[in-house]
Amino acid sequence: MKKDVVCLILSYPPLNSQNNGTQRGWIRDVLGITQKAREALYTQEKVKVLELSSEMDKLLSRQIHDIKVHVPSDILVNMCNGLSPGYQAPPEAMLDRCIDDFMIRQISQYIQIPEIQRIVISEVNDKNFLVRLKNLSPIRQIFCLVIRVDVRFCSTVKDIEGRIIEQLAFSNSDRGEAEQLLRSQNFLILLDDFHPWIENLHHLGNGWWNSNNTQKIVLASFQFYPGVPMDLEIRRNHHLLSWELFFRNVGEVLHSSTIQKLAVHVLRQCSGHLRATVLMARALKGVKNVRIWQHALRVIGSAANECVQYCAFYLEMEGTDKVDLLERWMKEDLIGTLGKGEQIVQHLVDAHLLESFANGESVRMQNEIRKELLKFYKAEMNPTLLVELDGRGLTEAPENEAWEEANEMSLMNNKFSKLPDNPNCPKLRVLFLQGNHRLRVISSSFFQCMPILQILHLSETRIKSLPPSFFKLVQLRKFFLRNCELFMELPTEIGELCHLEVLDLEGTDIINLPAAVGKLTNLTRLKLSFCAQTSHCRKDNHSNTIIPQNVISNLLQLKQLSIDVNPEDERWNAALKYIVKEVCCLKRLLFLKLHLPEVLLLNDLWDVASSLNLSCMRFRFIVGRHQKRIISRLSHESAIRFEEQETCLKYLNGEGTPTGIKVVLQQATALFLDRHLTVTSLSEFGIENTKNLKFCVLSECDEIQTILDVDNDRNGVFPSLVYLELHYMKNLRSIWKGQSSQMPSLSNLKVLALHTCPKLDTIFTFSLLIELNSLEELVVEDCPEINSIVTQEVLAEGVGPLQEWYLPKLKRLSLHYMPKLASISDALAIAPELEWLSFYDCPNLKILHLEEVSSCKLKVITGEADWWNGLKWYASELFQPPNLDDIFFPIERYTDLRTQLVEINDLLQAQKQKTEPSQQSGPGDSLRVPSIEFEAGTSSKQKQVAA
């Protein structure tokens, strides 16, 4: 059974295109062992059978390892155990044609392997299936003699052979002549409706085989009977594999009969390709709109497919302007007109393969979608055209021969310290070398024979300079040199690369920009990072100008401009006025990153003479003067989250609420307010100006006493906010002050993190608590005045609970370094979906109410072991004390807390990988750990229930 399951899965793309010679050799070995095992069973040689079984397991495990990348383990186990799919197939005959196609593909592939002589097909539900197989053109080309025989009334092998001879128009007396004819022919005999209980089926046709000819017998049955002794058994129900993968990844939406019909069409268009099936299912997960499914169908198998492939390989991670993408498609001859391209982009957006942003002016691709697409397309590519050796830890680059025929070389994330001196690469268009951290020097002639190279990635290497041959790459369009911290000087020869469209030097340490960059008039993206001018630079006679005048204004095609500077660099402050003026001339600019020490410079970007339109742009603005400090208050993870937002404003060391800041804030989706000197509430910037904010971080704003000071606002407060994080807020006392607004406020908030707020004594008032129906994570650390996350005084006034549960979506709750904490929510029933509950250094928390920890989905509780052992529980009429010891993880006092929490989380993720392979898990899947049982046991926790 296991052998047949493996063979079936290997018939699906992309596995069926991966090294067919190796697969056929594997099948021969398996069939050889199977034949020996039958003979051993017949002679009752038990020891030999065990040896052969062990040998078979080794052979099968080799292929199963590759298969598990595409098929989850539980599906594979069920198939090997003969179980039907776990998900209900659509009713009637909706999938029949699709499944039959997959079966015929498998038969067509394996029928050409000489060692496979007898094939049985079970659970056939179409009486015309064998007729369709018989009439296939490839079958007629392979076999001279194709006959179909009805054997439903045959009860022995001899009866079946007699019916075949009759079908050949021979009598039983002429049996010898019939067998002679069969031995001389390439024959395919199709036996319809046979009975699997017939004995010695493996002897069927023993006298007819001739190794010089292609000869097969295919038996079809409407039922399934395990153990039929054939070379290969094909179960129709196993070919529901694609449907099961699709169902598992697309979700409950597939219960709709209308969506089911469209899903079957998607499966047929994907041709059962395992990666494509999962990819399309994930793109359509939870989508109930029929039109979106129809758009998805238009994408697959159309001209849009090549455009999708282009986006998977070449679309920038942060996205790009839509018009720019269409122009690139036209250059690659993927589309004929911009109108056609617009239509394709819309189809891809509607099918969730691309994501539109910046008011529809730009598009990007989600990382999850990109990864699956890359796997899909790379599996389809000719291996001689794509040399893919990324992430293998190689210390030596490929030999020269490997470079000669390649169109693309993927050599990133290895350990190369040296590259070939002068590889001959007449066809090479794409070269990825990023992530080779040991690569310091590239030979002077390395790029000499790469005449058509268009994309070069050297990011995250240790190179200090570019070799002379680099400037011979006259066809180069995209050059990435990100995070090369030792790279300090860009030669003036860069101006010779006139076709360059992308020059990305973000994360380098260049001293200044050569004036020759102004000659690169095709640039659409320019990203720069400058080091501060030092005495060393002045001694080397480097220019005192960080960016020469008229360089930026020459680059009229620019759509993305990013400039990182050291805030202490006086050259930047000296050049800013003309740089801002030149930036205002860039009519096509869609993304801008700048550091502006003065708010007045921000105003210059939007004056009447400027060509910039803030509402149609993405931006990263740092406004204000930096102050040097040793430790950043913002964690690395939070800084990354901030940078990922579409439009970001970081306001440093500010005073008051300038008009320029308010104007930018209206369009911003992320705000980082750092060390503001005067405001006492975020509301002072204007509630109406924060309606688009999704991400907000406040740090060291010493005068802020409450985040929101609201007085019956009619429009709701922070309606878009998803993430709110506070750090070192010296005088903060509350999150919310004033009456509730008439419209929902903070209704989309998912994460609230409070760090080191020494005077904070109120987190949730009751009126605020009822607004937070979307909150998924709450972190409170080093807030010594908090005794409960819900203010007791409000509940004591007689304002009773209005709903059964509060914080209905809360999944993670972390309470650390809180010496006065005595209760989580003062017995209010909260968090029915809670999965993670972390305590540390909360010495006054000695009793828990079961209403506070009643989630059946709880997987982790952390805290000190002695605190846990001394903890008591209040009894409840509604909730019985669960046994929580099994999910408690002790925290060591003298080991870094964050490190321990990360290790616990990693452990759980590892368990998740074992139970749900990542390849087939959706992005929103939760960790499947057994839920807590409410049993009448005698654990240490249950013995301490307080009366």
The proportion of strand residues reads 5-15%
- Rounded to an integer in angstroms, the radius of gyration calculated over CA atoms is 34 Å
What does the main sheet amount to? Answer: 20 strands, parallel
Report the uncertain regions: 794-799, 916-947
Number of helices: 27
Distance between the termini: 59 Å
Which quaternary structure do these chains form?
single chain
Mean pLDDT: 81
Question: How are the SSEs placed, and which strands pair?
Answer:
Layout: H1 2-10, H2 20-42, H3 46-67, H4 73-80, H5 96-110, E1 118-122, H6 129-134, H7 137-142, E2 145-150, H8 157-167, H9 175-183, E3 187-192, E4 216-220, E5 232-235, H10 241-250, H11 257-270, H12 274-283, H13 290-299, H14 304-314, E6 320-321, H15 322-331, H16 338-350, E7 355-357, E8 362-364, H17 367-380, E9 386-388, H18 400-404, E10 408-410, E11 430-432, E12 455-457, E13 478-480, E14 502-504, E15 525-529, H19 535-539, E16 560-564, H20 570-583, E17 591-596, H21 599-604, E18 618-623, H22 636-644, E19 647-652, H23 659-667, E20 670-674, E21 695-699, E22 706-710, E23 723-727, E24 734-738, E25 751-755, H24 766-769, E26 777-781, H25 792-796, E27 812-816, E28 836-840, E29 847-849, E30 860-863, H26 865-870, E31 872-874, E32 888-890, H27 897-915, E33 945-946
Parallel strand pairs: 1-4, 1-5, 2-3, 3-4, 9-10, 10-11, 11-12, 12-13, 13-14, 14-15, 15-16, 16-17, 17-18, 18-19, 19-20, 20-21, 21-23, 22-24, 23-25, 25-26, 26-27, 27-28, 28-30, 29-31, 30-32, 31-33
Antiparallel strand pairs: 6-8, 7-8
Helix pairs in contact: 1-3, 2-3, 10-12, 11-13, 12-17, 13-16, 14-17, 15-16
